[in-house]
Amino acid sequence: MERIWGDDLRIEGVVVEPLDGIDALDDEVRGFGPGPTRRLGVLVDHLVPGSKESRIVARVDSPYVLVTGHPYVDVWQAVKPAALGIRAWPVVPPGRPWKEGVCAALGVAEPADMWRQILSRVDSFADVETPLINAMERLIDFVTQPG
């Protein structure tokens, strides 16, 4: 997100923090204390109908919180394969952690190494898929609306 939207976020005074999953989203929202002058936007991976993520997100009920997402298993998958010089993201069998499966298929030792490769090749909107762009733009618009 930083590579593409970082300047816009800084100009608007938006702080980005990773959640490391949304299983405790209710607690995170309560801890943030959203209100008229303190809006919260949350970007969720794999936000598709019927998913665990969609059930968790449905419990968030505040006019000061927008939870949106993209259909990809992980934000890595929202990066266009061509930006990384691959034809497509590897298919990872169910039950195997996605990042580890991708790394194994692409011959990368550690997810941190793969993340560095991805970051080095993402520079603009052209490098990511439209659903991610749309979700991020919605979040930025929401959190920067005047109270």
Report what the structure shows:
The chain has 147 residues and is mainly alpha-helical. The protein has helices at residues 2-12, 25-32, 52-58, 81-84, 98-106, 111-121, 130-143; strands spanning 40-44, 65-69. It folds into 2 domains: 1-73 and 129-147, no CATH class; 80-121, no CATH class. Helices cover 44% and strands 7% of the residues. Strands 1-2 form a two-stranded parallel sheet. The longest helix is centred in the C-terminal third of the chain and has 14 residues, at 130-143. The protein is globular. The two termini are 25 Å apart. 18% of the residues are buried. The mean pLDDT is 93.
Q: Helical proportion?
A: 40-55%
Percent in strands: 5-15%
Termini gap: 25 Å
Order of helices and strands: HHEHEHHHH
Question: Could you write a compact summary of the structure shown?
Answer:
The chain is mainly alpha-helical. 44% of the residues lie in helices and 7% in strands.
List the helices and strands and how they pair.
Blueprint: H1 2-12, H2 25-32, E1 40-44, H3 52-58, E2 65-69, H4 81-84, H5 98-106, H6 111-121, H7 130-143
Parallel strand pairs: 1-2
Pick out its properties.
about 150 residues, about 45% helix, 2 strands, mainly alpha, two-stranded parallel sheet, 7 helices
